[in-house]
Design brief:
The structure is a single chain. It contains eleven helices and twelve strands. The chain is of the alpha/beta class and 346 residues long. It folds into two domains: 262 residues, Rossmann fold (3-Layer(aba) Sandwich), CATH 3.40.50; 47 residues, no CATH class. Strands 1-2-3-5-4-8-9-10-11-12 form a ten-stranded mixed beta sheet, with helices on both faces. Strands 6-7 form a two-stranded antiparallel ribbon. A hairpin with a 5-residue loop joins β2 and β3. The protein is globular.
C-alpha cells in the first residue's frame, strides 16, 4: 500500500499536477440573484486567474449535475478582472464556473468604474447609477477641457518615451484562455480536487469584453469552445492580439455580440464582423444605448448580465425558452424597449 501511495505521489510530481487549493475568497453582492449564490475565488494552483463559481460547489453539482464552464478575457486585455466582477459573479449564481484572466484581487469594484464612467459617459445613456447607489454625472465642459489637456500631455510624454524604448507588451495573451481551460480539465479529472467531476467540459463558452473579444476570436477555433460571447467588441479591419478578420473564418459555434450602440467605440467593427461571419454560423447582435461601458457597473451587472445568462442558458443548458430574447423581436421590445436586435443563420 505504501509503495502504491509513493508511486502515486511521484507520478503527480512528475506531471506537475497540483490539485486546486482555494486560498482567497469573497462574496460579491450577496452572491448574485441566481438560485446558487456565488463566490469569487483565488486558487494557489492557478494564481494567474480568478474563478467565479457557486458556493458549496459539490452540493450544487450533486443537485444539478456538472456545471458549464466559461473562460473570460478582460477589456483592454488587462491582467485584472475586477471591472467585470459584478457580471461574472451574477452569471456564476445561475450555475456556471467562470475562470477569468487576472489574479485574485479585492480592489473596490465601484472605484474602478467611477473613473471609467466619468471619462466615457455616453450621451445616450441618461442617468447612470452604480451598484452602490452612487449617481455618476457627465463631465462638465471645464472637466472635459482639463481632461483633454491632460491626455495630450500624457500622449506627448508617451511618444517621447516610445522613441527611446521598444513598445510595451501586453501582459496577457489569447492562449491564456486555453491554458486555464486545460487547468480546469485537469482539475475535473483529479480525485481530491475541489472541481473533481464538477465541470461539464462539453459545454464551454469563451467570453471577452473589448480587447478581450479579440483574444476570444484568436482561440475560437478550438473545438472545445461551444459558443462565444462578444461584449462591446469587434475586430473589423484591425489586427489585435494576433486576431484579424481572418479569424472569423475559424468560427464553428453560435456567436452573441452585445454592443453599446453607435456610442460604443466597437460598434463599427462589430457591424463588419456580423456581415462577414459565414452563412453557416448562427449569430445574434443586440445593441443598447449604453456605450462601450455597458451596464457592468450596475447592480448585478445590469441588463448585460441578464442577456448573457439567457444566451448561456440557451446555448449551454439547452433551455430553449431563453432563446426568445434573441429570436423574437416582440419579446426583445417587451423586455428591453431601447435595444435593437439582428440575427442570421438560424
Amino acid at each position: 500500500m505504501k509503495k502504491l501511495l509513493l508511486s502515486a505521489m511521484l507520478f503527480a510530481a512528475s506531471t506537475g499536477l497540483v490539485t486546486a487549493q482555494t486560498v482567497q475568497k469573497q462574496i460579491v453582492e450577496e452572491g448574485g440573484t441566481g438560485p446558487f449564490k456565488s463566490e469569487v475565488v483565488g486558487d494557489a494552483s492557478c494564481p494567474g486567474f480568478t474563478v467565479y463559481r457557486p458556493q458549496n460547489l459539490q452540493q450544487v453539482v450533486a443537485q444539478k449535475g456538472a456545471l458549464p464552464v466559461i473562460v473570460y478575457a478582460n477589456g483592454a486585455c488587462f491582467n485584472n478582472n475586477v471591472e467585470m466582477r459584478l457580471l461574472l459573479s451574477e452569471v456564476a449564481s445561475y450555475g456556471y464556473v467562470a475562470a477569468a484572466i487576472g489574479p485574485y484581487d479585492e480592489a473596490d469594484v465601484m472605484a474602478q468604474w467611477r473613473g471609467v464612467l466619468k471619462s466615457a459617459y455616453p450621451a445616450t445613456k441618461g442617468k447612470v447609477v452604480m451598484a452602490n447607489g452612487e449617481e455618476i454625472k457627465p463631465l462638465t465642459p471645464e472637466e472635459i477641457k482639463a481632461q483633454q489637456e491632460e491626455q495630450a500631455k500624457m500622449m506627448a510624454q508617451a511618444t517621447k518615451k516610445a522613441k527611446k524604448a521598444a513598445a510595451p507588451q501586453f501582459s496577457t495573451y489569447p492562449k491564456m484562455l486555453l491554458e486555464v481551460l486545460d487547468w480546469l480539465t485537469e482539475q475535473n479529472a483529479a480525485a481530491g480536487s475541489e472541481y473533481y467531476h464538477c465541470l461539464d467540459l462539453q459545454r464551454v463558452a469563451a467570453m471577452g469584453q473589448s480587447c478581450g473579444g479579440a483574444q476570444v476570436l484568436a482561440i475560437a477555433y478550438d473545438p472545445r469552445i461551444r459558443t462565444c460571447v462578444m461584449l462591446n467588441t469587434g475586430i473589423g479591419d484591425m489586427e489585435m492580439m494576433g486576431a484579424t478578420k481572418e479569424c472569423l473564418k475559424n468560427l464553428h459555434t453560435p456567436m452573441f455580440y452585445m454592443i453599446g450602440g453607435p456610442a460604443d467605440i466597437a460598434y463599427a467593427n462589430a457591424q463588419k464582423d456580423y456581415e462577414r461571419i459565414a452563412d453557416d454560423i448562427p449569430v445574434v447582435m443586440l445593441n443598447s444605448k449604453d456605450g462601450h461601458s455597458g451596464t457592468y457597473y450596475e447592480a448585478h451587472g445590469g441588463n448585460y448580465a441578464k442577456a448573457v445568462v439567457k444566451w448561456l442558458d440557451w446555448q449551454l443548458k439547452g433551455q430553449v425558452a431563453q432563446s426568445a430574447l434573441f429570436l423574437d423581436d416582440e419579446y426583445l421590445k417587451l423586455k428591453f424597449p431601447e435595444w435593437q436586435g439582428v440575427r442570421k443563420n438560424f
